[in-house]
Amino acid sequence: MNNIKISIIVPVYNTENYLNRCLDSLVCQTLNDIEIIIVNDGSHDNSQSVIDQYSEMYPKKIIPL
Q1: Checking phi first, is residue 42 left (phi over 0); if not, alpha (psi -120 to 50) or beta?
Q2: What is the pLDDT of residues 21-53, one digit of tens each?
Q3: How confident is the model at residue 2 (pLDDT cuts 50, 70, 90)?
Q4: Which one of 4, 33, 38, 46 is most buried, counting C-beta atoms within 10 A?
Q5: In the structure, what pLDDT confidence band is assigned to residue 3 with cuts at 50, 70 and 90?
Q6: C-alpha–C-alpha distance, residues 60 and 65, integer Å
């Protein structure tokens, strides 16, 4: 059974400079039953690399799209 209670959608477009801070804040929440859906809208910076890094570190929480 899926225990997810909250889905957080993070739209990303050229936000490499802010994405680490955003994702750190989300994965450190005290509520464990969350999923973080990251939607990269064709960024031209290194946002996708940051997304890939976090999805590897937190595979049960982060869903990259």
Answers
A1: left
A2: 999 999 998 888 899 999 999 999 999 999 999
A3: low
A4: 38
A5: confident
A6: 14
Q: Is 4 exposed, middle or buried (0-12, 13-18, 19+ CB in 10 A)?
A: exposed
Beta strands in the chain (DSSP E): 6-12, 34-40, 62-64
Residue type, 44: H
Element (H, E) at 48: helix 47-57
Task: Give the contacts of 31 (CB within 8 A, at least 6 positions apart).
Answer: 5, 6
Residues in the chain: 65
Among 53, 51, 8, residue whose Cα is nearest residue 32: 8
